[in-house]
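[User] At your convenience, examine this fold.
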Amino acid sequence: MELAPLIHRFFDNIRNRSDEVYNEFSLQHELGIFLRRTVEPDCKIQFERPVSFFNLPRRQFVKKEIDIAVFNSPPTIRQSIELKYPSNGQYPEQMYKACEDILFLEQLVAAGFERCYFIMFAEDRLFFQGPTTTGIYSYFRASAPIHGRIPKPTGGTGKSLEITGSYLIRWHDITKDTRYGIVEVTK
């Protein structure tokens, strides 16, 4: 089962105003409702599913819950979707959180998930365009691949993430000032 075409269809509905989102919670639920209507009948779409539900040890993951889990019963097909709908600026911090989601998806794939998706919905152009295109900004504004050691850009904590794969955020227009980016993580 390929979710990417369905995800793009969902955002076509947003573009055409058939569906509406206004924050991360509405994005999560509207996408989940859309997927429930369109995926194969034996698939479940569930929200905020703990990794422990899939018999995975929580301590081995940077996050504990999956935003949208897609699976059959018994769970032999397992996919997940992580979402970001940043608001109120905090550009470098939200970009770092997005990279953390991608690391989480890598961990899920390593634990047996077949496909995982990261989606960022941005109504603020400074998430996908802006004068700074180095460091963490390069992944979101300059098409640099998300890969390797990514230091936390704020707080001076010395904290960092290690992304083993290489991922490009592919931005898609919804309106002049609104885009969504998607990353697929697979084996």
Q: What stands out?
A: The mean pLDDT is 94. The beta strands are 43-50, 65-72, 78-84, 115-122, 146-151, 160-167, 170-175, 178-186. Residues 172 and 179 are 5 Å apart (CA to CA). The radius of gyration is 16 Å.
